[in-house]
């Protein structure tokens, strides 16, 4: 209380009432600020509540906003033929509580490696995983392998490394799932020209989107088909 008394903040009954020496003003665009005449400074926050405010709505009928030679906004009441530096809308201010953007964590301790890599295509990438025959290393190697990467398992024990490779290869039986999904999923009926990996749509590699490469592959396909048909007719 002593600090409040020293700052002059305990002299008023209302929370919104300004302490002695303070004045409430508005900017041209309607934001409220506070002038401390004792310390000759201004601030956006209310000296007692810490809130920011702005005026609501347009000026009342017959009022006009002007600026004096010092750049300070004043208001003209044409009906009563008077001027004032007090915005008539100050009685109808609203609190401005800007919400800070919250950073949401995408993954946590329960997230699996497969969930993190969902929709990603690592075709053409080489991944070296140490200790890949068990634990975190194995899950890392398996996840990258199932997402198209060429994975090198760096293990001390050759037998355990071979066992890990076998376990990963067993999961390739799931590879046809994407083909079956694209062929049978009702939500994909009538759609085309999209790339799916592990039953999820993902962006193809830049090379796969190259028009030049597409034309070259088309020409190669035509040539191979013609050669095949020619050999059969001969």
Automatic annotation (TrEMBL):
Entries under InterPro entries matching the protein: NAD(P)-bd_dom_sf, SDR_fam, WW_dom, WW_dom_sf, YAP1
Domain WW: from-to ranges: 16-49, 57-90
Stated name of the protein: WW domain-containing oxidoreductase
Keyword Transmembrane attributed: no
One of the record's GO molecular function terms: transcription coactivator activity
Alphabetically ordered keywords of this record: Apoptosis, Cell junction, Cytoplasm, Golgi apparatus, Lysosome, Nucleus, Tight junction, Wnt signaling pathway
Subunit architecture: Interacts with TP53, p73/TP73 and MAPK8. Interacts with MAPT/TAU, RUNX2 and HYAL2. Forms a ternary complex with TP53 and MDM2. Interacts with ERBB4, LITAF and WBP1. Interacts with DVL1, DVL2 and DVL3. May interact with FAM189B and SCOTIN. Interacts with TNK2. Interacts with TMEM207. Interacts (via WW domain) with VOPP1.
Pfam families assigned to the protein according to its UniProt record, in alphabetical order: adh_short, WW
Location of this chain's protein in the cell: Cell junction, Tight junction; Cytoplasm; Golgi apparatus; Lysosome
Classification via PANTHER family: WW DOMAIN-CONTAINING OXIDOREDUCTASE, YES-ASSOCIATED PROTEIN YAP1 FAMILY MEMBER
Name of the gene this protein is made from: WWOX
DNA repair listed as a keyword: no
CDD domains tied to this protein: WW
């Amino acid at each position: 209380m002593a600090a409040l008394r020293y700052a002059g903040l305990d002299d008023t009954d209302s929370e919104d009432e300004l302490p002695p020496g303070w004045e409430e003003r508005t900017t041209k665009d309607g934001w409220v600020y506070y002038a401390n005449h004792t310390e000759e400074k201004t601030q956006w926050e209310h000296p007692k509540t810490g809130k920011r405010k702005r005026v609501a709505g347009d000026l009342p009928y017959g009022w006009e906003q002007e600026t004096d030679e010092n750049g300070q906004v004043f208001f003209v009441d044409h009906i009563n033929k008077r001027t004032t530096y007090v915005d008539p809308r100050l009685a109808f201010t609203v609190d401005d509580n800007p919400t800070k953007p919250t950073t949401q964590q995408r993954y946590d301790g329960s997230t699996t490696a497969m969930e993190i890599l969902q929709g990603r295509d690592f075709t053409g990438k080489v991944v070296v995983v140490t200790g890949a025959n068990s634990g975190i290393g194995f899950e890392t190697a398996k996840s990258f392998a199932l997402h198209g990467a060429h994975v090198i398992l760096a293990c001390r024990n050759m037998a355990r490394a071979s066992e890990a490779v076998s376990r990963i290869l067993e999961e390739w039986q799931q590879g046809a799932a994407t083909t079956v999904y694209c062929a049978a999923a009702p939500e994909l009926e009538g759609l085309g020209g999209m790339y799916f990996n592990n039953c999820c749509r993902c962006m193809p590699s830049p090379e796969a989107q190259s028009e030049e490469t597409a034309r070259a592959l088309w020409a190669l396909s035509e040539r191979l088909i013609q050669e095949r048909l020619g050999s059969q007719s001969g």
